[in-house]
């Protein structure tokens, strides 16, 4: 038995002292952890800033399949991403960030283009400080190919835009009446244009989609041709 029992004031003082010591230890741990977190964040930002960023503008007439193409590229680039069908039409512009070991690629998808005149307008608006222009074509809509060819010539003949490389995506190759990539290339007369401008064409399809399992509503699937389009886009943007 303690010969010198603590008074109430001494007990209170001891309790307050222990509490203060505990709070101080907790504070020091929190501050150390917070500083570590801040350093980690700055490290991430520094890493981000040290990685080059490329700007890619993606255009095409309504119904060409731009949004689904971007969705499937994002699935291939980001395992956490999924999308629903049918895709919502893009209003204005939508920016999607993709990446590889070399760069970040900011994809500016421009929606709501109804006519080829609008395409030329958007080309002019978005082509400054752009690393790559991607134009998505519905290979099944052959009536517009001659007009698209004329628009390409206007674009290439503009001296302010002539250095921007172009990737043409001949989409919807799964459609039975779609022109093959070499047929689209011939219809657009790309052979003559390629002497004046860096321009390439690649075939692509985003459908048919696989059946979802029961209870699923989102897709995490992309066609193999979409992966090839993304790789071509990456290589042209950094060249």
From TrEMBL:
KW Mitochondrion (keyword) present: no
Record keywords: GTP-binding, Lipoprotein, Magnesium, Membrane, Metal-binding, Myristate, Nucleotide-binding, Transmembrane, Transmembrane helix
SMART domains linked: ARF, SAR
Residue positions binding Mg(2+): 67, 90
GO molecular function terms attached to this record: GTP binding; GTPase activity; metal ion binding
InterPro entries in UniProt: ARL2/3, P-loop_NTPase, Small_GTPase_ARF/SAR
TM ranges: 12-30
Binding site for GTP: 60-67, 112, 171-174
PANTHER family: ADP-RIBOSYLATION FACTOR-LIKE PROTEIN 2-RELATED
Similarity comment: family membership: Belongs to the small GTPase superfamily. Arf family.
Name of the protein described by the UniProt record: ADP-ribosylation factor-like protein 5
Organism lineage: Eukaryota, Metazoa, Ecdysozoa, Arthropoda, Hexapoda
């Amino acid at each position: 038995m303690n010969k010198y029992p603590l008074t109430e004031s001494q007990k209170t003082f001891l309790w307050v002292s222990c509490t203060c010591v505990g709070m101080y230890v907790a504070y020091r741990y929190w501050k150390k952890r917070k500083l570590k977190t801040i350093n980690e964040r700055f490290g991430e930002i520094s890493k981000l800033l040290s990685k080059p960023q490329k700007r890619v503008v993606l255009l095409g007439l309504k119904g060409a399949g731009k949004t689904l193409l971007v969705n499937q590229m994002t699935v291939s680039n980001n395992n956490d991403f999924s999308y629903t069908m049918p895709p919502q039409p893009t209003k204005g512009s939508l920016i999607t960030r993709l990446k590889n070991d070399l760069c970040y690629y900011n994809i500016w998808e421009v929606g709501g283009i109804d006519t080829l005149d609008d395409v030329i307008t958007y080309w002019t608006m978005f082509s400054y400080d752009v690393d790559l222009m991607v134009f998505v074509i519905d290979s099944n809509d052959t009536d517009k190919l001659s007009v698209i060819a004329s628009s390409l010539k206007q674009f290439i003949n503009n001296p302010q835009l002539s250095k921007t490389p172009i990737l043409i995506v001949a989409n919807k190759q799964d459609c039975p009446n779609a022109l093959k990539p070499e047929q689209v290339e011939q219809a657009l007369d790309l052979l003559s244009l390629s002497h004046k401008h860096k321009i390439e064409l690649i075939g692509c399809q985003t459908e048919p989609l696989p059946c979802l399992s029961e209870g699923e509503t989102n897709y995490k699937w992309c066609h193999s041709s979409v992966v090839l389009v993304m790789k071509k886009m990456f290589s042209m943007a950094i060249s």
